[in-house]
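Researcher: I'm preparing a figure for a lab meeting and need a structural model of a single chain. I don't have an experimental structure, so a prediction will have to do for now. The sequence is pasted below. Please return the structure as tokens so I can convert it later.
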Amino acid sequence: MEVGSWIWKLSYIIHVVSNAISIGLFFVFSFATEEMLKEDIAKRYLKIAGIFISGTGLTGILLLSILTMTGMDDLTSNPIGQSVLVMITGYILVLFVYSLALIYKGGEARLYKKFFAIMFYTYLIVYVIRVYLTN
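Model: Understood. Here is the structure written out token by token.
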């Protein structure tokens, strides 16, 4: 169980740090100026955000698999499982908007700002719901 405990702790730390960096990046670009939202700058930071979104997804899958190994099969039966479902739904929405932002070729700062704002507010709403469910 010692190895499983370390895997859980390490993946949870990576998950939380990836989420924090992602939400910070999305926050900054949600309220950025036109100069920061030029296409080349926005694309560069979208690629950096992709690293942390991928880290969040991979560690989230690992954490969820560890939860199911310890007997949490029905996610709708308790508040922690419900918060996991909310996080999965939010992650899917962020991933969808992220992919839209990557394939967007217009270069209009207004749309990049909206993409980043949708991702930021999705993270924010998910964490507010998560705090509500687990307290």
